Amino acid sequence: MALNTTTFHNVINNELTSTTRTRHAINPATRQPNPEVPLSTAADLDRAVTAARQAFSKWSRTSVDERRAAAHAFADRLEAHTKDLVALLTQEQGKPLAQATIEVGMAVQWARELSGLVLPETVLEDTDSRQVIQRYVPLGVCAAIVPWNFPVLLAVGKIIPAVYTGNTVLVKPSPFTPYCGLKLAELATQCFPPGVVQALSGGDDLGPMITEHPGIDKISFTGSCATGRRVMASCAKSLKRLTLELGGNDPVIICEDVDIDAIVPKIGTLSFLCSGQICMVIKRLYIHESIYAEFRDKLIAYIQTLKSGPGTEADVFFGPVQNSMQYDKANDLLNAIKADGLKTISISGNSRPGAAAGYFIPPTIVDNPPDSSRVVQEEPFAPILPVLKWADEDEVVRRANASEYGLAASVWSRDFARARRMADRLEAGSVYVNSHFECAPWAPFGGVKMSGVGTEWGVNGLLGYCNSQTLWLHKG
Ligand code: NAD
Asked: Does residue 171 share a domain with residue 235?
């Protein structure tokens, strides 16, 4: 049966509920309004938290196998509705259908594989008289606060770890992209008991209401560093557990011995996926000076082959940026680049006609700007990439690390030992050699420095939804 993607509800206690007032987000490819969604109040939140607390007492005592079966049923529902979710994702987020298909496919995989991981239980001592065991127990009610760039994967990547470890979860999608998040919770009603997976859509006040709520035990937040700080300050009041997945400004170092023709398409794709709106795509590209000009020119030529336009058109790679705020931020950065007299190559010749209507930013390469410039220091979160020259290994590693962010970083070279030597010195939560932006449900993902606190995914990520408990068991 097709998923209804025209009407949208909160999901509270497995009931689809409405609110007196509603709001809507904008389709970024057309700037036309998307459908109305609930505008939740403090009373809606209270009802959801009460339902979540009630559900927790039973759900936390279910077996791991039971919870895994429910997670797999959810994965099956997502998979069965892939087509509808992909179309809705493109409509709300703007990313091209091909990239939306990858996101939904990853969400299905994440739902299955995260719930296949095994939490450790360690016998620390075992004698005739006493056994001491460390095990992991659920926290209670968790809230998943989700950004607008990956509304499906990042919601599922929080829902499953929370409920698989025995918690209940309340999903709050971004006000810019509330649609898929609400449908995920609607599908979850077919797989989980009431109160286990719920979702509320709202305005800018809903996030703070959630972080302040005394009935919530943990916040899993993905978003910007600025909001992350606010979330942490709010959680401090009740010592809520929290995981923060924040921004990035990923440096990538290209050594002089690379096969330029082979890697240019990879680097181009990994710099501009989702129109640069991914926390861990390439944000600073350091190219060895001896191949700088050739690499830059081939990168530009490659990007010229990629089409911009509405994500609904089959051959489009560059969709719009997601919202007017992001559009204004990107234009502000482009103006600063211009005012500073930096050399840019703007690639606008390959736009589909529909591109005129939406929040489209032409893909732009900034040619060897100073390290102190905004485009190097900040996370553009738009299709704007600074390419920079380097000469000395120590110097480029120092420059790569000279950032308040530390999400991901990579080194590309045919000399694996050299690349590994350089990679070992990079300060980031994920470090790659001859690759970037790889992730998996079984691998912990997180940032260092201002890029985050804690990890998600992998066993380590699951433990973020648990308390450690030490059992001292005297047998006599
Ligand atoms: P954002 O911080 O503006 O919003 C993220 C979420 O927080 C939204 O749901 C928003 O409604 C909510 N929110 C806003 N203010 C809040 C408050 N005071 N208290 C609680 N919740 C609040 O981020 P965004 O613009 O949606 O997303 C883009 C940012 O997210 C970028 O910086 C990007 O790098 C980062 N990001 C990080 C990761 C990661 O895994 N590290 C992944 C994706 C995006």
From this structure: yes
Residue 78 lies in a domain: yes
- Same domain? For 100 and 192 the reply is yes
Residue 236: give its domain's CATH number: 3.40.605.10
pTM beyond 0.90: the answer is: yes
Cα 151 → chain centroid = 8
Q: Rounded CA gap, 232 and 222, in Å?
A: 12
Q: Are 51 and 12 in contact (CB under 8 A)?
A: yes
**Does 426 lie in the same domain as 296?**
yes
**352: domain CATH number?**
3.40.309.10
CA dist., res. 282 & res. 179, Å (int):
28
User: Which atom of ligand 1 sits closest to the CA of residue 326?
Assistant: 25
Query: Tens-digit pLDDT profile for the chain (476 aa)?
Result: 789 999 999 999 999 999 999 999 999 999 999 999 999 999 999 999 999 999 999 999 999 999 999 999 999 999 999 999 999 999 999 999 999 999 999 999 999 999 999 999 999 999 999 999 999 999 999 999 999 999 999 999 999 999 999 999 999 999 999 999 999 999 999 999 999 999 999 999 999 999 999 999 999 999 999 999 999 999 999 999 999 999 999 999 999 999 999 999 999 999 999 999 999 999 999 999 999 999 999 999 999 999 999 999 989 999 999 999 999 999 999 999 999 999 999 987 677 777 778 999 999 999 999 999 999 999 999 999 999 999 999 999 999 999 999 999 999 999 999 999 999 999 999 999 999 999 999 999 999 999 999 999 999 999 999 999 999 999 88
244-272 burial, b at 16+ Cβ within 10 Å, e below that, comes to bbbbbbbbbbbbbebebeebbebbbbbbb
CB of 323 closer than 8 Å to CB of 95 = no
Q: How many domains does the chain have?
A: 2
Which 3 state secondary structure label does DSSP give 122? strand
Pocket of ligand 1 (CB under 6 A): 145-150, 172, 174-175, 207-208, 211, 222-224, 227, 230-231, 245-248, 279, 379, 381, 407, 447, 452
Is there a single domain that holds both residue 410 and residue 458? no
Measured in Å, residue 20 CA sits from the centre of ligand 1 at 26
- Same domain, yes or no: 293 and 355: yes
Would you call 256 a catalytic residue per the annotation?
no
Residue 440, domain member (yes or no): no
**What is the best residue among 23, 142, 149, 451 to mutate for testing ligand 1's pocket, by most ligand atoms within 8 Å of CB?**
149
Supply the DSSP symbol for 21: S
The range of the structural domain enclosing residue 58 comes to 10-246+449-474
CA of 339 to the centre of ligand 1 (A): 29
